[in-house]
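Narrative of activities, Objective 1.

The group set out to show that a structural description can be obtained from nothing but a protein's sequence at a throughput compatible with the screening campaign. Below is one input-output pair from the validation batch, recorded exactly as produced.
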Amino acid sequence: MGLWRITLAYDGTDFAGWQMQSGRAARTVQGTLEATIARLGDGARVVVVGAGRTDAGVHALGQVASFRLDRELPSAELQRALNAMLPEDLRVLEAAPAPEGFHARKSAVSKRYRYELDTGPVQLPARRRVAGHLPGRLDAVAVRAVAELYCGRRDFASLASAGGSAKTTVRTVLRSEARFAGETLVYEVEADGFLRRMVRSLVGGLIAAGRGTLGIEDLRCALAACDRRAWPPPAAARGLTLVRVAYDGPRGPDVE
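Output recorded for this entry:
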């Protein structure tokens, strides 16, 4: 059985997240992929592992998945076959054999997410699936200062939502940048790993600072408290996109 690595893009609006849900007939990215890949083999279940377990409504431009297939196919043919059978809101951007031992999640060294938040009084209909919406101007200086606060290695327990399976809440944020494009806040963050809903909680902190609800020192103390009750609520899922997953050694092109 050959080990494969595929890079995926999807519109997460109509998916109940990445992960299959036991006892529920929810439409998930993992479940859709597994059902499709099984059709290329003998019909038996093919377990697909994703680099990031994106929540319901979260999108991807560079999700990576790995799986074993008991059929030999050229990379281009596998990509064409999967895209011919997958729904229009899920696409394989790249397919390639993976070296033994590769694991889409465990082999990753970092992940990059982007969050877009429209702050104008009225959100354009074409933006409603890909960006959050919160009317009201944000203080750009305060937002950027809090984005810088997140950088480094620290305990992010205050940003962890219940239900996660992480053994530790310590993470290293390698990049945390906020910029404004007109009335849209664009936030990019890269880390060696993320806790459940951590990125959306990071954005929640940016929003609190931008609105003046909490100052940077308030958020610094809330972060140090390691208590979820001290932190602002997470932003909506729909503005979040998994942009890229990085691995040691050769990797596919960045997807922007």
